[in-house]
Design goal:
The chain is built from no helices and eleven strands. It is mainly β and 112 residues long. Strands 2, 4, 5, 6, 9, 10 and 11 form a seven-stranded mixed β-sheet that branches. The chain has a four-stranded antiparallel β-sheet with strand order 1-3-8-7, with no helix packed on it.
Length: 112
């Protein structure tokens, strides 16, 4: 079955850290660029970060630059999003994406 499964979300205090994982099954993650998106209540889904499968280049939204780091472990068929210095405005459901495939999302809640 072709799918993406996110994990690693949770409740953390402002200034804390979380590491999200996006594990692929049914296909090789390294064949595709991977993106992380998030959607807060009442807001549109927005792009957070992405990583290229060609040269490993990365992109970060201005709101997370310097705090979040995207990486991939091809041996584990997994992409990670390390989130440091979390802020209450980072609270959202986080999704990973490859092509037209989306995971089910993982909730991140940052308390002030």
């Amino acid at each position: 079955q072709v799918q993406l499964v996110e994990s690693g979300g949770g409740l953390v205090q402002s200034g804390g850290s979380l590491r999200l994982s996006c594990e692929a099954s049914g296909f090789t993650l390294d064949d595709y660029g991977i993106g992380w998106f998030r959607q807060a209540p009442g807001k549109e889904r927005e792009g957070v970060s992405c990583i290229s499968n060609r040269d490993g280049s990365t992109y970060y939204a201005d709101s997370v630059k310097g705090r979040f780091t995207i990486s991939r472990d091809n041996a584990k068929n997994t992409v990670y999003l390390q989130m440091n210095s979390l802020k209450p405005e980072d609270t959202a459901v986080y999704y990973c994406n490859a092509m037209t495939l989306w995971g089910q999302g993982t909730q991140v809640t940052v308390s002030s």
